[in-house]
Write a structure and sequence with these properties.
This protein has 3 domains: 188 residues, D-Maltodextrin-Binding Protein, domain 2; 79 residues, Periplasmic binding protein-like II (D-Maltodextrin-Binding Protein, domain 2, 3-Layer(aba) Sandwich); 90 residues, Periplasmic binding protein-like II (D-Maltodextrin-Binding Protein, domain 2, 3-Layer(aba) Sandwich), CATH 3.40.190. The protein is built from 18 helices and 11 strands. The strands form 3 sheets. Strands 2-1-3-11-6 form a 5-stranded mixed sheet. Helix 2 packs antiparallel against helix 13, helix 8 crosses helix 17 and helix 12 crosses helix 13. The two termini are 42 Å apart. The site of alpha-D-glucopyranose has 13 residues, from helix 8 and strand 11. InterPro entries: SBP. One of its GO terms (biological process) is maltodextrin transmembrane transport. It comes from Oceanobacillus piezotolerans.
């Protein structure tokens, strides 16, 4: 496989993270048993199956879900725990906008929501700001084995030795192709360009390729994939900013070549996941980059024009191989929730084997529990889920910089990279500006 160097170094990193997480988990035990007082609002509910309980309603906030996944998992939970009703609160599809709304709500110590989905990039910030409950004592009490989860997803929710969230599903950027138009997906970005030029218009399509190029968080995930596939990095393992490199410059050039080509929609600079998904399921493109959930939409008989004509593969490679950005969502409990026990019961369900299986089968989302990839129904979602190598893709996905000031880092990158795509500055200028501005932000 072309992945080799990148995959190997990422795997070593994951092994290290795994080791550190194991140390953290055992080290945090004592501390956390003292934290009971944090949940002064705990009203003492014991949400045990089958017992007679006071009815309680919890509010679960999450971004727009275009798949039936969320409804299905809530329905299954309510059937199993009839005394807990889950009310949904829909947040914006754009993770940056959701982030800002959560910060407003949580910083005012509101108890309006109990449980919410957190993007993989938020835990450090939310933990530092004390917005959410530490989950260690629940995890220990209920005997949850965190080693059943992909180590990278556990590590992403761990900050200062404590677990602040439960991994719900993981995301890695994947490549979609139309099996009624091509047999094999392109192996490199250059092949993608060649094939897109050649194939656009076939099978009723208008475009060769769809990606996320709007100025928002998704742009960063697309950019990280280009940068890593050419061997570049934003921040290295010692927390040094290393983004100003020939690799970044080459990657941004390739990204620009694609975004300004004739085979993408003219308004690609407005494309987020939802625009990608809509154009894709209408059958408008030969290839697309999105997260695994788009497989569920592609095969949705009610919405999609391309049912059974879609496969997922790894993204095309640059000089150093193929790279997928690490995304994903976890569930957190609002520190000011008035129903922490019921909230935890829901978090446990949605991030446990039953909940994750429903989310995978109904919502096309990639589980964080590795054993679920051996489940025939999960394997039925796509051939990629059934492919053992996909676990490797997920585990070796490239994280965005882990920092309590990540939103600031992301804003800097969004602005500088967008300016390259709109032709307002060169890739060299962008790399230099990102280096200086991220260094300054991290030094504050
Ligand atoms: C997906 C990913 C998330 C990422 C977002 C960007 O939802 O799971 O981690 O930040 O896309 O748009």
């Amino acid at each position: 496989m072309k992945f080799s160097k990148l995959a190997l170094s990422s795997l070593l990193l994951i092994a290290l993270v795994f080791f550190l997480v194991a140390c953290n988990n055992s080290a945090s035990t004592d501390q956390d048993s003292n934290d009971e007082s944090d949940t002064s609002s705990d009203n003492g509910e014991q949400a045990e199956e089958g017992s007679e309980e006071e009815p309680v309603t919890i509010v679960y906030a999450r971004g727009v879900d275009t798949t039936p996944g969320t409804d299905a998992v809530i329905k299954a939970f309510e059937e199993k725990f009839p005394h807990i009703k889950v009310e949904q609160r829909e947040m914006p599809a754009d993770t940056g906008q959701s982030h800002d709304q959560y910060v407003t709500l949580l910083s005012s110590q509101s108890s309006e929501i109990d449980v919410f989905n957190a993007d993989v990039i938020w835990p450090a910030e939310f933990a530092q700001a004390n917005y959410v409950l530490e989950l260690d004592r629940f995890i220990e009490r209920d005997g949850i084995n965190m080693e059943d989860y992909f180590p990278g997803t556990v590590a992403a929710a761990n900050f200062n030795g404590k677990q602040w969230a439960m991994p719900q599903y993981t995301d890695a950027g994947v490549f979609y192709y139309r099996t009624d138009i091509v047999d094999e997906p392109p192996a490199t970005w250059d092949e993608l360009i060649e094939m897109s030029n050649e194939l656009k218009g076939e099978g009723g399509t208008e475009y060769g390729y769809l990606m996320q190029a709007a100025q928002y968080e998704g742009l960063i995930t697309n950019a990280i994939e280009f940068i890593a596939s050419y061997g570049g990095e934003v921040v290295d393992e010692n927390n040094n900013v290393v983004v100003n490199s020939p690799e970044t410059i080459k990657a941004l050039e390739k990204m620009k070549e694609i975004v300004t080509s004739d085979f993408v929609p003219e308004n690609i600079l407005n494309f987020m996941e939802i625009e990608t998904e809509n154009a894709w399921i209408e059958g408008n493109a030969v290839f697309a980059r999105n997260w695994p959930y788009m497989m569920s939409s592609s095969n949705d008989e009610e919405r999609s024009e391309i049912v059974d004509n879609v496969e997922m593969a790894r993204l095309p490679a640059g000089d150093e191989g193929t790279a997928a950005a690490l995304g994903g969502w976890m569930t957190m409990i609002n520190r000011y929730s008035e129903h922490p026990e019921a909230a935890w019961e829901f978090v446990k369900f949605i991030s446990g084997p039953e909940g994750q299986k429903i989310t995978a089968v109904e919502g096309g989302r990639a589980p964080t529990l590795s054993a679920l990839y051996d489940d025939p129904e999960v394997q039925g979602v796509s051939s990629l889920f059934a492919n053992p190598e996909f676990r490797e893709v997920l585990q070796s996905a490239v994280p965005r910089p882990v920092s309590p000031i990540y939103p600031e880092v992301s804003d800097i990158m969004q602005i500088e990279i967008s300016k390259v795509l709109t032709g307002d500055q060169t890739s060299e200028e962008a790399a230099k500006n990102m280096q200086e501005k991220i260094e300054a932000a991290m030094a504050e």
